[in-house]
User: What shape does this take?
Amino acid sequence: MFETVFLGTSASAPSIHRGLTAQVIKHDEYRFLIDCGEGTQRQILKSGIGFKRLNRILITHGHLDHILGLAGLLSTFSRWETIDELEIFAGSWALERISDLIFGVVLRGARPPMKIHLVEIQPGVLFEDGDFSVSAFPVNHRGPDCYGYLFEEKSRRPFLPEKAELLEIPPGPWRRELVAGQSIRLPDGRVIKPDQVLGPVRPGTRLVHVGDSGRTDNLRSVCHLADLLVIEATYLNTEAEMANDFAHLTARQAAELAQEAGVKNLILTHISRRYRERDVLAEAREVFPLAEVARDFDVFQVKRGECLKIGGY
Ligand SMILES: [Zn+2]
Ligand SMILES: [Zn+2]
Assistant: This one.
């Protein structure tokens, strides 16, 4: 299960109702901030999620509407010292700009408030824990080294306690070993195999996040059957040419990708001030009826095909 908190949902400049791009993905005790547009720290406060454990930042690309908030965030961290280490993951071009911003403008030779690791990403897994991983994949937008992120729970076989009861396996280490896929020998000599107490494989939840993107054909395979796709929709179809010129997507293109890839849920973000939200929604829903348009502070929970809005205005 993943939870996603939209902190900013506006494209290129803020509007009265939308802050600049930023989003938090939560899984158990882990939190990942994706992009950090100007004003993100105030959105974090307003959303109630706070700064604690917000120590991993994934940047989709180096455009200013996605990174300027890092300066303010770092400056606040230097006073509050809420975290010991901060990792910022980005492609090399974005990282160079972020480095200029943090070390050239904010710190200017001062000691960083915490260890700051600027991690240059390559396509592939960038973070892994026991039951989930985060991978980066290339995205085409203006400029080099743009990335999207895939959050993926490992598939697992659920433990069936009723079967364990029938076999009279006492709770404790034996059950844990079975869950870990190992056969056990009970004190009475019986050998129990994992198959006897585990259900069929249950695929883990997959959440795909795509920031600014000028193409969708190269995203189909990573989006294939995802439980949730979060993707930009900066333009409407009436201005498809302009979308193409600036390497952005229309709501229709985003929805077509969702449709073709068989994703189960779609949330559009990076919404331009030039359109009404309901027009963006209508265009997407013509193709993908379950499409949603994110608003600042919306919270969605995604779990095996289901995506529920559990908070927001
Ligand atoms: Zn942008
Ligand atoms: Zn951009």
Summary: The chain is about 25% helix and 30% strand. The longest strand covers residues 132-139. Residues 2 and 27 are 5 Å apart (CA to CA).
